[in-house]
What does this fold into?
Amino acid sequence: DSAEASPSVVFENIEACSPNCLQMLLENISGLTRDADFTVEVIPKINVAVATFIKSIDTKEFVEKCLQDKRVREFKMTARLLESTQTIKAENLPDSISSDYLTVYFESARNGGGPVSDVQLFPEENSAIITFCDHKGNT
It folds into this structure.
């Protein structure tokens, strides 16, 4: 089952921990190096960060280590695997964006993509909903 676990871990309630502090904390817990082994995306609007592991690790075990870590508990953060989904929302898109461009972009392996089955553009919101053929193409 661990082989199918998400390569991404969600950290919630991160406001007490700066992005640099969080990255160092994750390096300390995992023994890995940011940028080479994992990336961290901070989403301040919803008080969340997502760590995505480039290097293959047991993310379930990593989540357990995080939940037991003294510093993580002091910061009152939580950690969980990112759920798999077949649909994502892309926001802040340029006015001129086309569904064909988004399809090609999100199908690019370099961007972590996979086969796209549908793109719905919402020009009034400068956003789009991208649906993948399976849940592996939305990292």
Remarks:
- The chain has a mean pLDDT of 89.
